[in-house]
Amino acid sequence: MKKFFFAMMFAVLTVASTCAAADVWIEHWQADGIDIYAADDSIKGDVSQSDDKYFTVSTKFVKRGEVQHVVKWTFSKYQSDMWRYETSGMDGTHTTVVIPRNPLFEFCMNKLRRSYRITDDGGISYYY
Predict the structure, then answer these.
(1) Is residue 114 reached through a cis peptide bond, with omega within 30 degrees of 0 on the bond before it?
(2) Is position 36 within any domain?
């Protein structure tokens, strides 16, 4: 019985450790010496086929192994408009167009298993 109990505890701990949320490295900003990590379990939202699409994700800005600050991103798209974002560091009066190739946007869309397309509008590319 003890062997069975320990075997079950080992199985539970193994599964629990493999299901834990992780910070996923997204990119390095060389000029600032900053690494950007996405909190894997923070990706939430609705990117269904409705007119309003949005999702949020929290990121950590890390320099020399120390978290400098945490930023919450909200990506949104209305009807046929291009994808836009707003961060917790912005003043809330506007959104900014997401320019391809944005590693954070693409990571989240892949994680959510949603498609996007990149369209060139007169020399500038956008996500749709």
Answers:
(1) no
(2) yes
Host domain of residue 76: 22-127
Burial (CB < 10 A; 0-12, 13-18, 19+), residue 20, is exposed
How far, in Å, CA of 73 to CA of 84, rounded? 10
What is the per-residue pLDDT across 100-127, written as a single tens digit (0 to 9) for each? 999 999 999 999 989 999 999 888 999 9
Q: Model-level pTM?
A: 0.79
Neighbouring C-alpha atoms within 13 Å toward the C-beta of 5: 2
CA–CA dist 32, 20 (Å, integer): 30
Of 60, 52, 50, 51, residue with least CA distance to 27 = 60
Do 60 and 36 form a contact (C-beta atoms < 8 A)? Answer: yes
Assigned domain for 106 exists: yes
> Is 30 inside a domain boundary?
yes
Task: Give the bridge partners for 87, in sequence order.
Answer: 73
What is the number of domains present in the chain?
Answer: 1
Examine the pLDDT at 5 and tell me if it is beyond 60: no
Report the alpha-carbon distance of residue 68 to residue 105 in Å, rounded.
Answer: 21
